[in-house]
Amino acid sequence: MIDTERLVLRPWREADRAAFAAMITDAEVGDWLGGARTPSQADEEFDRMRAFWVERGQGHLAVERRSDGLVVGRVTCRQQPPEWEHPYAGVHEVGWMLARPAWGAGYATEAAAAMLRWGFETLQAPDIYAWTATRNLRSQAVMRRIGMTRSPEHDFDHPALAADHPLRWHVVYVARRPAGQ
Predict the structure, then answer these.
(1) What is the pTM of this model?
(2) How far is the C-alpha of 171 from the C-alpha of 21, rounded, in Å?
């Protein structure tokens, strides 16, 4: 679907289920997602991701490394469903998750930049948002590297996390569609 220098961003296949489960059940990966998923939660999320793409033509894509065909993460640009209970329901979001062995190789930046362009060109999004926990400095660095700007007036408490959860407070970045696009 979307090719970058080192990656192919494509819809998930049934054959990717185990790779996805390995990522999202990993405790260190899960630390940034409010907690690692159980194997049954991973299966449910995998099925939801695939269905969302089929139904809406947007959502999470597999991040496949071109050199060896290994699925190393997921990336998304999608409009948050307006019916979701989230402070940014209805806005376009770019986001990513990588398998721990793929951390630090620049894949998140490469994939997120491609999805940001896709969101502006294909979805015609006027603005695209990204958010993460205040403590997730690595994701914030990716946001800056892909040209997003910090938007402190949009920061929020994540409704899916308990009031005392250390990741509850989220910072928000935004990118505006370039002129002429």
Answers:
(1) 0.92
(2) 27
